[in-house]
Amino acid sequence: MNSLRSVDDHLAGILNTVRTLAPLEVELEQALGTTLAEEVTSPVALPPFDNSAMDGYAVRAEDVAAVPVTLPVIDDVPAGDDRLQAIGPGMVMRIMTGAPLPAGADAVIPVEWTDAGTAQVVVGRSAAPGHAIRRAGEDVRAGDVVLPAGTPIGPAQLGVLAGVGRRRVLVRPRPRVVIISTGAELVEPGMPLGPGQIWESNSYALLAAVREAGGEGYRAGIVSDDAAGFLDQLDAQLVRADLVITSGGVSMGAYEPVKEALGPLGTVRFDRVAMQPGMPQGFGVVGEDHIPLFALPGNPVSSFVSFMLFVRPALRKMRGLPAGPTPTVRAVTAAPLRSPQGKRSFLRGVLAPDGTVEPVRRQGSHQLAALASANALIVVPEDVTELPEGANVEVIPL
Ligand SMILES: Nc1nc2c(c(=O)[nH]1)N[C@H]1C(S)=C(S)[C@@H](COP(=O)(O)OP(=O)(O)OC[C@H]3O[C@@H](n4cnc5c(N)ncnc54)[C@H](O)[C@@H]3O)O[C@H]1N2
Ligand code: MOO
Ligand SMILES: [Mg+2]
Known about the structure:
With 398 residues, the chain is of the alpha/beta class. It is built from seven helices and 28 strands.
């Protein structure tokens, strides 16, 4: 019997091995979910020119100091107007939101404060200089850093990239993750089940978890319990993988294709990790390019929990984001709970808005529906075997 390896050692080994992906230039449309690999500055000020914040009239504030007052409207300034006109004393121009402020004007009167006249306008309310004007450079000055390297690119970041005129951007791409399920009993969902068979579910859960963690997942289908067939499939898939996840075939059975195929390579280490669920699993590198490979256990809850604890941090590192143990939040137990001695357990629980967490009733590592009824993993340390109701715990929100 080999001894157990701690969760922390296993994660440290993973994070020491996994490398951040090389930067790649992509079109803006491909940048969502990637991480910025360059510092982005703005070539121009934003806004680039003084402009109106409202639809109304560009005025000299002193001309509307005493109201009501009737003034001639000498022209219109629509957004995009490039005539660079000026107004003189006692004149106004009709102006639209985003249109450049005419020289000579120092305030904008919203149309709601007027009779909306077109040849002349009655202004019913005065405004201080600067009213409803957006100044050049108020958001960004020319040369300002708008996004530092290392920023995860979400919708707002994409918007600002376009807003400073970028078409292409240097990023850490989304890692490409190939998922291979092993097991002679597995059948694709939608196909009829024969005796002894079950529908394959791990690759679907793992694919979704990969996407949520910022990767691009590919299901490479099901491989039967045959080490040679597994190696063939792995070889065929490596060309499109930055990372490989396998599920099943890593424990003590007579037909464990992943362990059988990868064990002899010497580059993938199989361990019994001191955790529940997820004890038997492997990690290492494969192929000429040393692609990281996670050999996750087949039990559905075990593979999911192992993903959260080990694959997610690895994906963060590959994406160029700060990587460490999966973050937890504090909660208080709403019921007593039990946990095995010597293993860190990750009980499936329901975290309530009041900060209490209750373990779900079924905690088996095959009980996928029970996992689906939970929204948190309750972390119970290795040396704790029982906790009363009302105890402080850390939980991983799902
Ligand atoms: N004698 C021992 N037996 C087992 C041990 C042990 O220490 N000694 N460990 C148990 C633990 S803990 C786990 S976890 C599992 C790990 O099993 P494997 O990784 O070898 O996976 P399989 O044997 O292929 O399958 C286990 C279980 O999961 C189901 N499965 C597998 N793949 C899928 C999939 N893609 N979709 C849905 N369900 C899947 C499979 O049918 C089995 O029921 O080993 C224990 N045994
Ligand atoms: O450790 Mo296994 O992953 O519980 O069922
Ligand atoms: Mg097995």
